[in-house]
Amino acid sequence: MPIKTEPFIVNIGPQHPSTHGVFRMRVTLDGEIITDAEMVVGYLHRSMEKLAEERTWTQNIPFTDRMDYLAAMTGNLSYCLAVERLAGIEVPERAQVLRVLFAELQRIASHAMANGTFINDCGAWQTPLFYMFREREKVLDLFEMTCGARLTLNYMRIGGVAFDIPDEFMPALRALVDELPDRIAEYEQLLVDNEILIMRSRNVGVLPPELAINSSVSGPMLRGSGIAWDIRKADPYSGYDQYEFEIPVGHQGDCYDRFMVRMEEVRQSLRIIKQAMEALPAGRHCADVPLSLRPPAGEIYSRIESPKGELGFYLISDGGPTPFRFHVRSPSLINLTALKEMVTGSSVADAIVTLGSIDINVGELDR
Amino acid sequence: MAGPTVLLPGTDVAARIEASVAGAVEEAHEGWVRIRPDRLLEAARFVRDDRALDGSFLNSLSAVDRYDCFEVVYNLTSMAHNHQFAMKVRAGHDDPVLPSVVSIWYGAHLQEREAYDLLGIRFEGHPDLKRLFLWDGFPGHPLRKDFRQLPGGFSPGLQRFPKEDPNAWGGEFRAD
User: Fold this and answer.
1) Cβ-nearest to A310 among B31, B59, B110
2) Number of folded domains in chain A?
3) pLDDT single digits (tens) B67-92
């Protein structure tokens, strides 16, 4: 006898640990199968783009910390780079290398968080997350000894970085760099061939490459779908063309591939950090930039590869002390464009895993 | 894929568009090309499918209030040729309406909703055009240059946020 079921609507979030912030997904279910999904966002909207039009170019740097608070360094870097390109400011060599060093440390911290919470969403309650946090903690310690903050760093400046590294920084970094390969090997032993993780994430939330490009997806999600596109290679900034590293790609575009891409990117970041430590020249850490900076009238779209994806700034200057327009291309928002296509037809538990593998940050999503 | 990405001059892009979609270009500049709004869909489909331009990846869709008009900027990248270029379109300030490009770049879906929410530009043909960050019934569009404060002043507390209408999403609240 066929049993008739009635579709019903369930709210996942906004207050739910698996939504990574105040994110709400309103799903229509037929039995346990999702037939429609819609995201409801805006709970963390702080109107940064409006506020930024009232503040000077330098005063806007702390906003970029509070966008993606798990990767404040890359937020800083993207904004400062955009302003420097707009105003034509040369950054000293030492500052360039320090920026690469800190951006890659931030990528390790952010990917550790992403993979830890992803495995948490898969059902491995807390243990892998705290393993990952162990390494993230050491990266945050390095940030703390350099700029005094752990999350909202406000470290980069237009024209360089705020402070030079202290004396105790390099020994601590060397200890971390020596230790991390063993740790990564440990995680791989625990997780990569783990039957439960593979069953839970293989062929779940598949994103085909054509849809990935058409829906402007970027970062590890795009590379997980098999497209070798990394802005550090394609459009090098801050001297990334001087470092040797590879771009890991997935093959099937499922959650497991995205997880593996992040895992491998940590290893590649470590390679870049080692080269940056060798290459670090002596010199100044910041160029002379007037406090009341007035870039010439014009506009720029500048992007970098943040841990979440392509973080871009579209800035317009009218020659005044404040931006005329400050628009953020936030990867967390745009990576969610294909969410409906990815979760429709799967069960609720798989939708949670898919959302975890996208690695959103609601601070950056809502801005 | 070896970089750096080349920024195509807007005049070259304009000549290329003009050769196939005649009369679509309104103005060309070194950094961008501006398209007539009524020819936007044709031009957008052309720049996506053309082999030389190959604007298949929509980086960013940004909307700007230019006081006398609204401007929407499409930053496009070709991953095959590793170049980028910018396309602009303008809408009137009183009742800004533009054709939606969601059928061409699905990535514009959320970004057009954002532009509608914060600047009040209506995108005709968008499959699901509604506010993204702010709630339905929010007075005005805050990223407009003439939006200085909330009409009626600031009143703290939750009364500013209306209760969600359950009928709007086809359900009823159940206490159990």
Assistant:
1) B59
2) 1
3) 889 999 999 999 888 899 999 999 98
